[in-house]
């Protein structure tokens, strides 16, 4: 990880260096072409001025002096010859022929000794006839294009070195910072994964409020660790409860079988009936365990939210359970039919209400079961009210515990435990009110999900 990050930053430095070199090359080339073009324009202007100094009867010395003077001022060391090769005037002649004050100014602006290289020859023409030759080479003039070109090139290279030093040093510094910044949380994640592999499900890592990918990865790890911890706790709890619940029916079955073998129980039919009843309890227990296992699996399963027309959904559930209520002569009714559409997990909602309604029918001997619904802020509720035997106030905190059974109960005490776990998974809550002899009211509150 660290090596890859360092190589990535090194690649950034190399790219920055290459881009700077390319930039310096093109800028220098373009500037050089511009300077050469400007110098050629000035040179052609001087040529035109020199050619304009020729008259039919010969060279006009005054005009020629002025043309040569402008050549010097424009940064050229010139020598003008006639058609016979005789020197007419040079740049040094121009400087010496000027007044002392002008000469000092010109020497402050132009250094005749700065001329370097060979003269380039430019023929002079008048009406198609060659009248002479101008020899020219560049001078180093204070503030001239040549000096500016050299200064520009020098500063361009300095900028290249400085920018490379800043970019390179900054990239190295940032690479060290990012390597430490990224490797530390990843090392913590590695240590946490190893601890999880050793069976420490309580391990957690700081997720940095999940603001970046590493934080989100840490959040996902924490969710996984929490899920595994919850699964392990549920497994231990369920195993303990199963062992406890299996012990009694197995002990009864063993006692009845041994009594029949020893002849203590003479009526074998009665003994076998006792065994059969205990087997029925075991079957009920296994079915209940299967139900609660499915409920626990809901904590880890992907949630599927769909749009639900709540009155239609509840009416369908009442219709499905109506035969159970009819066997006991109970009424089942939906209190209201006002429209209410919710976006929720329909499968989990069905399992929650099916358990509550089945319990209401089981513990109600006369009267009926009524279902109501509504919404408040960002929550909706479904309320199940019955006219059953009710629950003592001191027993209300226990009704959602696993394997809790009220007095005279024929169940195994898992229905409401499943309800509580499913409600928790959906992010809701369940309230219960009850009074002995008056019935019970269970109200399930669930969040209204967005459709996004």
Q: How would you sum up this structure, described in words?
A:
Among the domains are: 81 residues, Orthogonal Bundle (Helix Hairpins), CATH 1.10.287; 142 residues, Histidine kinase-like ATPase, C-terminal domain (Heat Shock Protein 90), CATH 3.30.565.10. Helix content is 57%, strand content 18%. The protein has 10 helices and 15 strands. The strands form 5 sheets. It has a 5-stranded mixed sheet with strand order 10-12-13-15-14. It has a 4-stranded antiparallel sheet with strand order 4-3-7-6. Strands 1-2 form a two-stranded antiparallel sheet. α1 runs antiparallel to α5, α5 packs parallel to α6 and α8 runs parallel beside α9. The chain is rod-shaped and about 160 Å long. The mean pLDDT is 79.
């Amino acid at each position: 990880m660290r090596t890859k990050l360092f190589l990535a930053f090194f690649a950034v430095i190399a790219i920055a260096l290459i881009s700077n070199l390319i930039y310096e090359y093109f800028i220098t080339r373009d500037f050089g072409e511009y300077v050469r073009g400007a110098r050629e324009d000035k040179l052609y202007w001087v040529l035109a001025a020199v050619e304009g100094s020729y008259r039919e009867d010969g060279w006009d010395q005054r005009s020629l002096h002025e043309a040569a003077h402008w050549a010097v001022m424009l940064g050229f060391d010139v020598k003008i010859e006639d058609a016979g090769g005789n020197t007419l005037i040079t740049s040094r002649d121009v400087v010496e022929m000027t007044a002392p004050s002008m000469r000092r100014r010109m020497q402050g602006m132009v250094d005749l000794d700065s001329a370097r290289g060979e003269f380039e020859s430019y023929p002079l023409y008048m009406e198609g006839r060659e009248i002479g030759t101008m020899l020219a080479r560049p001078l180093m003039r204070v503030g001239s294009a040549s000096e500016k070109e050299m200064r520009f090139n020098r500063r361009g290279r300095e900028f290249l070195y400085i920018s490379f030093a800043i970019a390179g040093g900054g990239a190295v510094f940032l690479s060290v910072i990012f390597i430490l910044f990224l490797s530390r949380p990843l090392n913590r994640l590695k240590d946490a994964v190893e601890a999880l592999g050793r069976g420490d499900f309580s391990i957690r890592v700081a997720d940095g409020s999940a603001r970046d990918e590493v934080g989100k990865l840490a959040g996902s790890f924490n969710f996984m660790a929490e899920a595994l911890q919850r699964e392990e706790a549920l497994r231990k709890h369920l195993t303990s409860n199963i062992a406890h619940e299996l012990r009694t029916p197995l002990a009864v079955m063993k006692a009845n079988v041994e009594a029949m073998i020893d002849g203590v129980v003479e009526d074998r039919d009665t003994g076998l009936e006792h065994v059969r009843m205990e087997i029925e309890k075991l079957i009920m227990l296994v079915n209940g365990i299967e139900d609660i296992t499915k409920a626990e699996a809901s904590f880890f399963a992907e949630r599927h939210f769909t749009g639900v027309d709540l009155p239609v959904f509840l009416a369908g559930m009442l219709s499905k359970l109506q035969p159970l209520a009819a066997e006991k002569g109970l009424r089942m009714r939906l209190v209201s039919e006002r429209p209410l559409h919710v976006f929720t997990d329909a499968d989990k909602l069905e399992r929650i209400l099916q358990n509550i309604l089945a319990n209401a029918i089981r513990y109600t001997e006369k009267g009926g079961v009524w279902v109501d619904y509504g919404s408040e802020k960002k929550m909706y509720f479904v309320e199940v009210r019955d006219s059953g035997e009710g629950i003592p106030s001191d027993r209300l905190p226990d009704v959602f515990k696993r394997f809790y059974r009220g007095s005279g109960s024929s169940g195994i005490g898992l229905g409401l435990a499943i309800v509580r776990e499913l409600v928790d998974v959906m992010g809701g809550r369940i309230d219960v009110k009850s009074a002995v002899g008056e019935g019970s009211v269970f109200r399930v509150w669930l969040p209204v999900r967005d459709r996004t």
